[in-house]
């Protein structure tokens, strides 16, 4: 009896530093931000503090900007399938006992591991439409290597290297001020630039390592059985590899969605400042502006809670859809 | 009498199938290497450009020829002259050091409480910890900022370290690790009269070392590259960490791309070195975090 | 394990001591460090250097990285704000005062013998709120007409002599709007800078708000007349470019700077601007420019666009008393003469804007028009404001409507009507948020009901 009590005290003491920090900086703020999202607090004392109920939420529902930024966020997530499948392919390629696996793995993981402001600044320089090497290379390929002659013949006009981070055009033709798709918006622009960069950064990262681990867990017997049955490569993949990797894929998809919906902030802040014409403003960048530039704490909290609810809902949906498959 | 069935033919048939499969795979090997090399080059090229540009003079950066005509290693010195780069380095390492220290210590102690001691409500509280892992960072950062403003921690080392020093993820990771250590060891030590504190340091922590090292690496790296929180907290130049310093360097010093690239190289090199040295832990850590999660 | 942690703790504590040593202090040697949050430009640096020379006990430095009203307020509330910061409009001053961040220095003015009457009235809204003084202006300005003498000579038009009505102005401007053989505009008679609308409505007797600020008065025939004249300059008399024509001619963007570049590039014979344009036009790139200054044209009343900037003291700064010495510095001769020399608009104190030194700066002998800048100050009127609505919101609404007027998407009457309606809605929103304000508004409008 006394021991149980002593245990309890000991546990509490061990827990104390962590849980007090947890309550003050994590759990507390969660409640606080929900509560404050029903107010008009702007941190500056310039307007009297009042509870406004659902006004913030209604306001954001009716603001077209909010929907535009949601589209921007989702647009950047279009790279996810390419990223995940790419990671799988790389993992499969590396999964054989060939020389230099470790070197390749290090190389592929490098972009993911070193990602941060320095890398974003690097890509901003790479994407510079006049001085950057990407357009210099494209220019050389199109003009000096005379590839444009071909385009001229087929399309009727030569291709110009895209303006990347300065252009509001994009591969889906999404417009800038209103939620619409139009032909005149077609092109390669800022959103696509960030998307492509995201693929470069993500394809060899944690996902690849997870797939490698998953692949190494597939028992050799399954492969042997398949090859004995005379199965071709594709059939082996479909019936052995893919199903065995299902739990890994499921985990990766769930995590990618959670990360993708929150993402785009660093890219926006470092590379484009949300532009051009707010095309790279994702929801997290919008929240940053509202909360830390305009200090509209109440409104920004409501947007962040909406984001949270969306992430939660998407995760539940993924769980339902994927969980069933994994169980099979 | 039972005959011994001759399996030779069967075995030969199996070997034959296996050989065929290997031959099919062998053809793939050249192709495989080709793809791997191409992908490797794509991964490597931006880094190469970055390093090469850092040695160029400003006018040359725009040249399509990647190699500099003359090498300018003094660019690296110039970076230190133009901005207080050494201070930025110090700040990043200092803040990350404190955060890692505090986080691993408090997480280990909390993990001990969750994994090694029985008490009422233990699992409920732990589920609460887990629940917060899914919450987007922005939700908590806004009230944290308001709190820091009220407490006058804004624009200070304390403001950078304290809110980041507590992590539910660290607690989670170390708890999983500790669960793999047999409780019998604890029991033995307790019977010998050891207090919980002694058991913690002398029995559990040494065995949990791989997990702790993984957490140390991840926490340090994560905080070294932390951008959002320092961005909103820091006002004065003397406090800037590397990411913030790089941001201001890029936006305010005209287009000195060669110097900016030199700064980026210096920013990234510690990460590369860290990665190459601790690869095993990192890879294991990612898998561990995912599988148990 | 324990030793590792203990060792790490020791190292971190040592580093902490080092960090503490490296933290910049407020007292540097025997000088006190003061911060001024303002934008960075060579003129500002000169002003600061002058202050530091005159006051060796201080080291005033510039912080251009945290400019922005909201940032200044929040940082000040958190205890890390600057000692001095700039205020660009009455709306900002209101916010600063309400946030408790602007320091009331009315008593200090009296004690140091500084008089408000010595300062150009046009800047009062930037630092005087409800009868109390909160800082000091950095400069004062009233816009007038810059004209390009060479273009006037080229088209054989005599230089304008000032004090002219719109009819006379349009005559002159028409002769200076010239197309080339292919029908493209070589030169426009007049380039605007987006702020004409305000003096123009006032000239015809209109107002932005009623006297007590309870209603937006843009929807009156007088105000509409002013705006319509503005639209007519572009589309009826065609002496002013519309936005498309402007961007076709323009080299750079940005408010003001675009107009200056166009004017400097000889694309317009006359332009509406301030003396501070010289900060850019003195650049050697424009050495061939022959400049002249004359009054802005007037209607039944003579009203010109007036504005300025003020420096306020942070009420929450522990060194606000010392920071006030900079405020006093802005009231004295050395600073005022420097402003006049730099041509950063006009010095804030009236009596220093006269005399030979002001009229002719030996470094810039071509600038013989300083008397004109002095003369127009009398007629400069600053933007109106209302205590019942946020000035920045009003500015945004008006900017949008003016854009529509300038692109001929709306008539002046429609734009004024829509602006008045939207501003009325904003007033109501503001009243809902603040019951005391609402009570005050209802008292003032009791007579209307």
Describe the structure.
The complex is a heterotrimer of chains A (328), B (293) and C (449). With 328 residues, chain A is mainly alpha-helical. Helix content of chain A is 70%, strand content 0%. Chain B is mainly α. Helices cover 74% and strands 0% of the residues of chain B. Chain C has helices at 2-22, 42-54, 69-77, 90-99, 106-111, 124-127, 149-154, 166-175, 197-203, 221-235, 243-249, 257-264, 278-281, 320-329, 333-342, 356-359, 370-376, 391-406, 412-433, 435-444, and strands spanning 27-28, 31-37, 58-62, 84-87, 128-129, 132-133, 135-142, 144-148, 178-179, 185-191, 268-273, 291-294, 304-313, 380-381. Helix content of chain C is 44%, strand content 15%. Chain B binds chain C through residues 87, 90-91, 94, 97-98, 101, 105, 148-150, 152-157, 201, 205-206, 209, 212, 235-238, 248, and chain C through 1-2, 5, 8-9, 11-12, 15-16, 19, 22-24, 65-66, 74-75, 77-80.
Q: Quick summary of this structure?
A:
The complex is a heterotrimer of chains A (328), B (293) and C (449). Chain A has 328 residues and is mainly α. Chain A has helices spanning 2-36, 55-62, 64-76, 79-94, 101-113, 117-126, 133-144, 147-155, 190-202, 206-216, 220-228, 233-262, 265-272, 283-293, 297-327.
Portion in helices of chain C: 40-55%
Report the radius of gyration of chain C as a whole number of Å: 25 Å
Sheet having the most strands of chain C: 7 strands, mixed
In percent terms, what proportion of residues of chain C is strand?
Answer: 5-15%
CATH class of the largest domain in chain C: Alpha Beta
Sheet with most strands of chain A: none
| Tertiary shape of chain A | globular
Largest interface: A-B, 92 and 98 residues
